[in-house]
Amino acid sequence: xxxxxxxxxxxxxxxxxxxxxxxxxxxxxxxxxxxxxxxxxxxxxxxxxxxxxxxxxxxxxxxxxxxxxxxxxxxxxxxxxxxxxxxxxxxxxxxxxxxxxxxxxxxxxxxxxxxxxxxxxxxxxxxxxxxxxxxxxxxxxxxxxxxxxxxxxxxxxxxxxxxxxxxxxxxxx
Length: 173
Hints:
Blueprint: H1 3-12, H2 17-27, H3 32-45, H4 52-106, H5 109-119, E1 132-137, E2 140-144, H6 154-172
Antiparallel strand pairs: 1-2
């Protein structure tokens, strides 16, 4: 037998320490030797009062958690705004492409000519329908008969002066 079992047998009057342990377990009681051991264990586990440094650490951790939550909320808000702006940009880009295509079609001469002939029944002018207008000065327009004459040199200038003077005299008289 060990010293412990001999001690238990002598102290409690049992022959076997194992029987005493089982009996204590069933009754849920503790022996005086166990209570001394337990008080030593509980003394090591007892709570100590919270120090100011501990309070500051707890408050600091709480502040860090709150800042992290605020950053997450702000990030979510910014992401939502970014998504909305991206959708607006895509819509504006598509609208810009559509308007650019409409602008180019509006000034496309082949489209204009096709619509003029199809909708309005217009046709190209013949040589007889063409009228030439000469603008020799800023505020006057001269209606020319036929195609504009080429510069014929000195003789052309003299004939032009004579013709203009005869027109002028015929209008006055």
